[in-house]
Design brief:
The chain is an alpha/beta fold. It has eleven helices and eight strands. β1 and β2 form a beta hairpin.
Length: 283
């Protein structure tokens, strides 16, 4: 019998369709595979509080999506940024590591990617977890509208969106009220964002994500067991979206935590317990 190999968290690069992708890997190679898909403006380190916890039971793969983190940031003329391209990227990562059918967990924008993968490639996804997922259209207000204004929005986002506003976005919208934001991690995300190629990539993603109709259209095509996890105080996507998702995805289950937009950061132990119970068929 071949002895299973326990992996500490390691990062490595793989090439998918000619583009370099950074992937964090942890856990035992003999454990069931779990792919973590991060959200907008961050990287796989958005799951820092839960990767090692999940690795006790799963073989974890957590890629940096193309254009973010330490993955390559090709121009929009070379890469079709958006959920479809990202879903195919995740499929390619799964193939590169040879892990086969996997559980897939996506947060925010990553939830839309995971959902799209499950709808388009049912053979690759054993179970699906959607965490405060991009799904339905929201009415933007205040500074959130600035990057999408005609003409001046692109200039603002690519040239004027500085560290202070970047920090404020995570402090005021992503992390729950009263929770000290992880400034060191936020600053690392800003450093990887604050380069012309990265800003161009992020802007291409942001504009592509404005139309959520393809995501909504795919809800009925998800056939794998699905868990919807949401923070009741989410200021990005209201908890009503979670209830709607759980109704519109066949046999989906819903769990609401007393957090903001990032329950895996705010209540990591409870989050891992809930997700693990579901992935192991105990919920």
């Amino acid at each position: 019998m071949t002895e299973s190999r326990q992996l500490p968290r390691v990062v490595r690069d793989v090439t998918v369709r000619g583009i370099r992708v950074r992937v964090a890997e942890a856990g035992s190679e003999s454990s069931p595979p779990l792919v973590l898909v991060h959200g907008f403006l961050v990287s796989h380190t958005a799951f820092d509080e839960v990767i090692e916890r999940f690795a006790e039971r799963f073989h974890v793969l957590a890629p940096d999506l193309v254009g973010f983190g330490e993955s390559e940031k090709p121009s929009a003329s070379r890469y079709a940024y958006g959920v479809d391209a990202y879903a195919e990227m995740i499929a390619d990562v799964v193939a590169a590591f040879g892990v086969g059918r996997s559980a897939v967990l996506g947060h925010g924008m990553g939830g839309a990617v995971a959902l799209t993968l499950a709808a388009r490639h049912a053979e690759l996804v054993s179970r699906l977890v959607l965490v405060d997922s991009l799904s339905y259209a929201v009415q933007l207000a205040g500074r959130a509208k600035l990057p999408l204004l005609p003409l001046v929005g692109a200039i603002f986002f690519k040239q004027l969106y500085g560290r202070g506003m970047f920090r404020a976005h995570f402090r005021d919208e992503i992390f729950g009220a009263g929770l000290p934001p992880p400034l060191a991690r936020i600053d690392r995300w800003y450093e990887t964002f604050n380069a012309p190629s990265a800003r161009e990539s992020a802007y291409a993603v942001m504009t592509a994500m404005r139309d959520v109709s393809p995501i909504v259209a795919r809800l009925g095509r998800v056939t794998c067991p699905t868990l919807v996890v949401w923070g009741r105080q989410d200021r990005v996507f209201p908890v009503a979206f979670a209830q709607r998702l759980a109704r519109e995805i066949r046999d989906a289950r819903l769990h609401v935590l007393e957090t903001g937009h990032s329950p895996h950061d705010e209540q990591p132990e409870a989050f891992v317990d809930i997700v693990t119970e579901f992935l192991e068929g105990r919920r």
